[in-house]
């Protein structure tokens, strides 16, 4: 218990040091649109069945609305709340990862989650505070899934809250299965433990079938642009190449990135995708052979977290293929955990454990 609070203090300190400059940043983009919407309206209005209010994602409006009621138009206070929420989200990541890896490694992964520029949207973009809340709900849902009935339903409540933050939370049952496998459970037991999460997901998908269904975004956009299956896949691969590049060279990260749909160069992108899949398959097989199953499963966590791009890339056809980095915030948990575990394995294999780990982790930060 003591270590948990020490980790929280460390993460709060790192968070406010790293993001100190952001406290002076002004409002940006559609922050003002949110504030205009909040004037003269109540929080309950975000749960209205009016389709113009995107009520299937109400907490994305409720969280900044609560900030507005307290701070009005003072951006410094918004940023301070965002840093606090992001630090708490990183702490929840550490608590979750501590279930399947050593405490110091979980803390290292949490720090990477906190400081990597790809996740800085949760601080710099004032109304993106909801994504930190989403991560906290995701981690708590997974943390509670092994409780006995009826306490396990607490995890389902957090899962529902995560879905009300953003629909990319639909991956949580998949993550639950991976965590069970990391704890040396078989697949049958993992599915049994996560059954309540899967049931909640089915009910949510039925709800979305009648409210903002995929046929009005994904399939309709593909049809009106005359895209073949290969061209659609090539367009997605083009977006993912940009995102993965920013994970390792985090310069020029945008809140939203779009490219024209791929038509002429679809064979080129499909070939690159095939080569990457083969290389990835070889790498995963090697990890299995050297008994690094935890690293393998966290890489699968990251790959599963990339699935939202297939749903959102075609949502606004007039902009071409579109990617928003915040879709993949849950996926980065797996990437950073895998990175820390892999570095730790290499350090233990080649000795000089503490020095090498400190140097490599410092470079990653």
Question: What can you see in these coordinates?
Answer:
This protein is globular. The model has no long low-confidence stretch (mean pLDDT about 85). Helix 1 packs antiparallel against helix 4 and helix 15 runs antiparallel to helix 17. It has a two-stranded antiparallel sheet with strand order 1-2. The chain has about 375 residues and is mostly helical. It has 18 helices and two strands.
Oligomer: single chain
Global Rg: 21 Å
Strand share of the residues? under 5%
Overall body shape: globular
Major sheet, described briefly?
A: 2 strands, antiparallel
Helix content: 55-70%
- Tell me the series of helices and strands, N- to C-terminal: HHHHHHHHHHHHHEHHHEHH
Distance between the termini: 26 Å
Give me the count of strands.
2
Structural class: mainly alpha
Number of helices: 18
- Catalogue the unreliable spans: none
Going across the biggest sheet, name each strand in turn. 1-2
What does the average pLDDT come to?
Answer: 83
How would you describe this structure in keywords?
single chain, about 375 residues, mainly alpha, two-stranded antiparallel ribbon, 18 helices, about 65% helix, globular
């Amino acid at each position: 218990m003591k270590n948990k609070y020490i980790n929280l203090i460390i993460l709060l300190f790192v968070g406010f040091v790293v993001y100190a400059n952001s406290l002076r940043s002004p409002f940006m983009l559609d922050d003002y649109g949110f504030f205009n919407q909040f004037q003269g309206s109540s929080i309950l209005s975000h749960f209205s069945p009016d389709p113009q209010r995107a009520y299937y994602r109400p907490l994305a409006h409720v969280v900044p609305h609560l900030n507005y009621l307290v701070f009005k138009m003072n951006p410094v206070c918004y940023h301070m709340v965002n840093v606090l929420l992001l630090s708490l989200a990183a702490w929840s990541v550490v608590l979750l990862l501590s279930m399947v890896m050593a405490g110091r490694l979980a803390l290292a992964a949490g720090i990477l989650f906190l400081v990597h520029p790809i996740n800085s949207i949760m601080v710099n973009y004032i109304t993106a505070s909801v994504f930190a809340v989403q991560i906290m709900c995701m981690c708590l849902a997974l943390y509670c899934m092994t409780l006995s009935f009826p306490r396990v339903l607490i995890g389902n409540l957090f899962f529902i809250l995560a879905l009300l933050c953003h629909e990319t939370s639909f991956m949580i049952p998949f993550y639950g299965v991976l965590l069970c496998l990391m704890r040396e459970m078989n697949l049958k037991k993992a599915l049994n433990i996560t059954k309540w999460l899967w049931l909640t997901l089915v009910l949510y998908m039925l709800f979305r079938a009648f409210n903002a269904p995929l046929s009005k975004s994904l399939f309709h956009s593909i049809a009106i642009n005359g895209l073949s299956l290969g061209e659609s896949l090539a367009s997605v691969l083009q977006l993912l190449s940009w995102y993965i590049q920013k994970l390792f060279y985090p310069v020029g990260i945008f809140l939203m990135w779009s490219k024209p749909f791929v038509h002429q160069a679809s064979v080129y992108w499909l070939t690159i995708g095939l080569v990457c899949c083969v290389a990835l398959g070889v790498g995963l097989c090697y990890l299995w052979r050297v008994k690094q199953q935890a690293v393998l499963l966290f890489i699968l966590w990251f790959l599963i977290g990339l699935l939202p791009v297939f749903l959102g890339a075609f949502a606004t056809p007039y902009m071409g293929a579109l990617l928003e980095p915040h879709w993949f915030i849950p996926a980065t948990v797996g990437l950073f955990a895998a990175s820390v575990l892999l570095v730790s394995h290499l350090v233990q294999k080649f000795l000089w454990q503490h020095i090498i780990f400190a140097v490599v982790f410092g470079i990653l930060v």
